[in-house]
Structure formats: C-alpha cells, structure tokens
Amino acid sequence: MRDELNCKMEDIELQLKAELLHPLGKIPKKGVENWLKDVKEMIWEAQVVENKVRNGRYLCRACNRKLVDEKTQEMKGFLDKAPNGSEGLAIDGPSARLPLPTSELVGEEAVRNEIWACLMQEEVSNIGVWGMGGVRKTTIMKHIHNDLLKQQRFKRIIWVTISKEFNVLKVQDDIVRALKLKEDWPREGDKLRRAAILSETLKYAGKHVLILDDVWDKVSLEEVGIPKPSGSNGCKLVLTTHSEHVCKYMGCK
Predict the structure, then answer these.
(1) Residue ranges of the chain that CATH labels 3.40.50.300
(2) ω before 23 within 30° of 0 (cis)?
C-alpha cells in the first residue's frame, strides 16, 4: 500500500509541475498542496512503523498487526482522497492578470478602437502602433492591455518594454519574468539555447498577446525566441515605435 501511495504521489507531483509550466502563472490548488504535504508525512510514518516491525521493536504480534492495519487504512484513505488529475491540479495565480497603472484617455478613443478591432480580427497577427513621441502610444496600449485582461479570448497578455538600448538577453529575461517562469530557465548561457527554451514556452502558453513597447529598431523574433504569430496559433504581436519603417519590417498592419 505504501508503494502504491508513493507512486500516486509522484504522478500527482509530475502532473502539477507540468501544469505550473504550461500555461504559466499558475499556482497549485490548496487541496492539492495539503494532500501532498500530508501524504509525504504519512509515507514517512509508514516507513518508520515498517522498520520497527521488521527489526523486532514490537514484540507483540497483535500490536504489530494492529499498527500495520491502522497505517494501511490511513494510506488507503489518502488514496481514496487523491486529487483528480482530470479536473486539473493548478489554478491561475493572483498576480497572473494584473492591470497596468495608466492615465485616462483624452481624445485617443478612435485610435484605441482601431487597434482593438485589429486584435479581434483572426487574419491580423502583427499590429504596429507608430508615431512621434508624446502621442501617447504607450498609454493607449496600457488601456488595451487592461481591457484584454477582462476578456477570455487570450490566455496570456504579456507586456515587455524594449527601449532604445536593445539587448536580446534582457528582452528574453523580461518575457520570462512576465511569464513567471521559474524553472528550467538558464540565467546565463548562449542566446540560441535561451531562444529555443523561450520559443517552446511561448508555444505552450496558449493564445496570447505579446506587446513590445517602445521599439526603436527592427527586432528579430527568431533571435529572441518569439514564435511567429499567425491565424493558426491565434497569437498576436503588438509593438509601439517611433518608426514606420520598423512596423513595415516587422510585417505589421
């Protein structure tokens, strides 16, 4: 019974680990955490009893049988109450969909509505918001980001600020931080390996919107590790920039 319970615990732990990674931003259900904690204690207690019985620490056979029966019944109870993997073991974390602080829109509603319409069109994958500094591109996109959080159309809304001093490693780290990826991410290493890991992670993140704010020059999505958005995967790329040339290079509408 102890081996059976241990196998069940390992299965639950493996499934939970997978759910925490894909999609990201998940936390374990409270009942799952409590079950795993209690089961580990139960397995340890059962091992202690088993060792004492094997080593003859209990001289009374009736006592041995009673202790073993009690632990067996307790372990059976844990098996009966094991979390149902088909119902999922993790839920969205409290910070997975936090809105960004922003100011009110004043006269930019038409632009906001045009960008929103593009996001809702399945055939549009890359969207560029360009214009000189001071036209409140970032403010408009923050409002759109927050409005998208209220919808169920996309699983993840990811915001990353690029800035003038573009650095691939920093952008990769910023995306990973936004995804709340804690495991299997090399803090250092070559860009290609990191790009490969990030690309696979984003593919498993489901339908998402990636917003790259303040892009000054063309960005190689492949170099960073960003899968190409398309109608088939349902993902969107939105960038804000001073340059119309950057929008055209990135294939933006």
Answers:
(1) 109-249
(2) yes
Q: How far apart are CA 193 and CA 191, in angstroms?
A: 6
**In whole angstroms, how far apart are CA 51 and each of 44, 47, 55, 171, 250?**
11, 6, 6, 54, 66
145-172 confidence digits (pLDDT tens) = 999 998 888 988 999 999 888 889 999 9
Q: How many helices (H) and strands (E) does the chain have?
A: 9, 6
**Contact criterion met (CB below 8 Å) for 24 and 205:** yes
Nearest alpha-carbon partner for 205 in 239, 185, 178, 240 = 178
The 10s digit of each residue's pLDDT in 93-122 is: 655 568 889 898 888 899 999 999 999 999
Q: What is the pTM of this model?
A: 0.67
The CATH architecture annotation of domain 109-249 reads: 3-Layer(aba) Sandwich (3.40)
